[in-house]
Design goal:
This protein is an alpha/beta fold. Residues 659-677 have low confidence and may be disordered.
Length: 677
Amino acid sequence: MKECILGISSFGHDTSACLVNALNGEIIFASAQERYSNIKYDDSIPFYTINECLKIAEKLNFKIIKATISCNYKLFLGNYLFSRIEEIVEDKKLSTEILSLLKNNLGSSKYYNKFSLTKNFLDNFFSNNEKKLSNKKINNLKNIITWYFNWSIKHKKIENLLQKFIGKIELVRINHHLSHAASAYFSSGFDEANIIVMDGQGEEETITIYNASNRNLNLISRSIWPNSLGIFYLEGTKVLGYSLGDEYKVMGMSAYGKPTYQKALEKSFNINKNGELTINETDYLGFCEIKDTGHRSIYFKEKIKKNFKNIKNNNFEQNHFDFASSLQNTVENIGVNLSEWAFEKTKKNKICLSGGVALNGLMNNKILKSNNFSDAFVYPASGDDGTSVGSALYYLHQNKNFKFVNKKISTCFYGFKEKLNLERDKKILKGLNVEVKKNIQKFVASKLSESFVVAIYDSNLGSEFGPRSLGSRSILANPVNPKMKEILNRKIKLREPFRPFAPVCLDDDVKDFFEVKCESNFMLFICEAKKEKKHLIPSVVHADNTARVQSVSKKNKNLFKILEEFKLKTGIPVLINTSFNIGGEAIVNSVEDAILSFKKMDIDYLVIDDYLISKQNEEIIKNIDTTTFIKNRKLRFQKINKFPTVNISYYNSNFYAYIFPYLKRKIKEKLTNKKFI
């Protein structure tokens, strides 16, 4: 029987699961939970997706020999917590004792509740050290321990739940940042490279830099909480009225502004001789503590926030765009400076990028354009979803019984597959015309040239792994039409008018139209359009003359053929490719998702393999509002999901700190109903 590894990401948002072939390291299946649930950035333990993995392994005759999780709960009790304890206690020896006490009790303890009337191991320790510790110090210690010890306990309990769910398969924990690093490096095809991981936070790390050679990952620099580039960008995103996951909107906004706040923001940042990022308090940026926890995080001070009040319905003014530009430029420069430090340290001229910040295509391209690097690779699922694959690949790397070649991937269609079944899907096809079309790619290219909009669902490919539609579940349009961006944003995607659309281009023609230095198979490098060609494709060139280009090879068979036919028809090897979804929902996953979305959206044609689907009349798109439509897709999942929904971020680290003082609040009700963590 063939052997494989089950990889799991259940750290926070963007949970996922995957299967990796133990013989060659190839991905058998990988999907984020959100593709099924339609909850963007889904933060629930991915029981449903794991179960899909178990079924696929059985169907394909694979034996799951190990499971990995991209989190090591023990690492929350690390250097940063020690530094905070020492800051309070002002005694290194006593601080070491306290941290050791926490580690020794991690295996047997429940959540620490500082309001409990029953004495526990910490209360006994504090009683025995009353002469060394004042009441104020004890209270401050309880606050900080409430957060970090409970964070460890929470993830330990998540691990226990997962172990129970998968039964006798041993679950191996892998450091979160190592999982990020492995996902990029072992998919890059590079033998030697620098790897930079940048995200909000791992267990305690926020940025890590690795020197990779011969499939070995050597850590050469680590920045720890609260020095987080990811949280800096997130907090700036919140200043503009957005939330987690909307950072790419700010990136789009930045093209319309000037970096008037950049110098003030950059005063907070420093990269030391060890490649560590540190953030210092200034008039604009500071650190605040979450009440009753001692947990510090970055925040923007009122001096800057007062300039961005009363944002309603995305009615932005010029200073909002200027702030977005300042945020973006600051992140780009820090990314470049970190990459320069890595190059000077290793002299390696190839680089891998991963972590949520690596979804910032402008930063990625600026790093690539520096004189240090000949090539770069960014993992398509650079967010936390990709760490399921990374943890599995890292386990295979560690285990000497498995030897696989580090191959460069050019596609990532690892997710759910489903064929259209006319009998099964008869009910949802009501009101639609369905016909089999010969040479359907030629037909699609012809309609696109006439500025019709076409959605494609390629059932020969799985759903894309990562946040971008790359030709498996996509909406295609004509980039030559200068009004197409406005049409798509207003009528179809229902989103902000300033947001750009991405071009897809035949791989042999990419460098004729775009200033791209390397392959860009996953839309993760935002480069400049060629000045002499940009007038030919106005709807994919952003206000700052940039484009988030995807190069398409013959491996992406259907999209490649459509592009070829469009080039024959128009002379242009470029199309608009945007995700097949309405703003606010996840990309379509199943055939049912695709058909119902097509019915709702103002799209002219839906193509599922050789089936051409069109609407019998336009009234069909007016029968349901968008909010209800998105809710209904979520309800469809809830009907088939037989597993408990356990939201990781709801059970946050200070959850039990609030039980006694706020017993009458809704928390009590939720505790009663959800006994999983």
